[in-house]
Amino acid sequence: MTTVWELPLSGTPQRFTMTLAGNTYQFLFQYRDAVAAGGGGWVLDLNDYLGNPIICGIPLVTGADLMAQFGYLGFPGQLWVRSDGTPDAVPTFDNLGYLSHVYYVTVP
């Protein structure tokens, strides 16, 4: 059975610890403002429970499992980004956790 949980986010950069499938992870969400380069946006750093980096700089893009390319690491599920109204709208600095959401999905 597939289960979906929303990560508790607000529209500010933040760090929190969460246990998923018996493993404890630290999540760090940062907004990288790169107006001059024509880009920027939210990125995720995933650390182990001690704060040691596992994956750094994962862009919060919609329409794909953020963890798919890292299957070899054994992360116990999927991470998806969706926005209200327009599911594939990219999260902005102000709407992450309000109109744009990050979901943890378990797959049997």
List the helices and strands and how they pair.
Elements: E1 3-6, E2 14-20, E3 23-34, E4 39-48, E5 53-59, E6 78-83, E7 100-106
Antiparallel strand pairs: 1-7, 2-3, 3-4, 4-5, 6-7
What does this structure look like?
The structure is a single chain. The protein is mostly beta strands and 108 residues long. 0% of the residues lie in helices and 49% in strands. It has no helices and 7 strands. It has strands at 3-6, 14-20, 23-34, 39-48, 53-59, 78-83, 100-106. The chain has a 4-stranded antiparallel β-sheet, with no helix packed on it. The chain has a 3-stranded antiparallel β-sheet with strand order 1-7-6, with no helix packed on it. It is globular and about 40 Å long. The termini are close together.
Q: Compute the gyration radius: what is it?
A: 14 Å
Ends apart, CA distance between termini: 6 Å
Total domain units: 1
**Main beta sheet:** 4 strands, antiparallel
Distinctive features:
108 residues, mainly beta, four-stranded antiparallel sheet, three-stranded antiparallel sheet, 7 strands, 49% strand, globular
